Amino acid sequence: MWKQLYSAAILLLILTVLTGLVYPLAMTGLAQTLLPFQSNGSLLTKAGTPVGSLLIGQNFSNPAYFHGRPSAAGQSGYDAASSGGSNLGPTNKKLVAAIVGNLKTVRAENNLNQAVAVPADLVTASGSGLDPDISPAAAYLQVDRVAHARGLPKAVVLALLNGHIQDRQLGIFGEPRVNVLELNLALDAQK
Fold first, then answer.
1. Which of 87, 139, 143, 184 has the fewest CB atoms within 10 Å, i.e. the most exposed one?
2. Neighbours of 13 (CB within 10 A)
3. Which one-letter DSSP state was computed for residue 58?
4. 3-state SS of the chain: helix, strand, coil percent to 5?
C-alpha cells in the first residue's frame, strides 16, 4: 500500500509541475514570441499612454465620438470585472424598458425621426456586455452627428468609417464590423 501511495504522490508532483508550471510558462513564452500585441491585451495607445483594448468596449457619450453598444456589465455598464449579459428574456419588462429607453436615446442623440430604422446593436447589449464592435449600419447612422460635432465634412467622416470596416474573419466567420475605439482614435488623429 505504501508503494502505491508513494507512486501516486510522485505522479501528483510530476503532473503538478508539468501542468501548473511548465505548460503555462511554455504557452506564455510562445504567445509573447508569436503574438506579443494580442497576448498583452491588444492595447491601443495615444501619445504613449494606453487608452483601451481592441477587445473590450468602452462608454463613449460625447457627440463627437461614435458610440458603441449598450452594456449590461456591472451597475453602470462597461465594467470588465462584471462581464456578462443581463440574462433577461425577450418578454421581460425590464429588458423591454431598457431597449425602449436606448432607442429613445439613439433617436435623440442622432436627431432621427420615428421612420428611421435603428440597428439592433445600438439598443441591445451583447452577451458579454463589453462588445467593442458595432455593425457598419450602426456606424453609418452616427456619421451626421459625429461630423457636425467635430465640424468635419461628412465625406471625411464617411471615408474614415469606410476605412475601418473589418470584413468577416477568413471571409466566412462573423459579420462585417467596426471597432469603435479604433475608429474614435482615428477621428482624434484628424486635424
1. 87
2. 10
3. -
4. 50, 10, 40
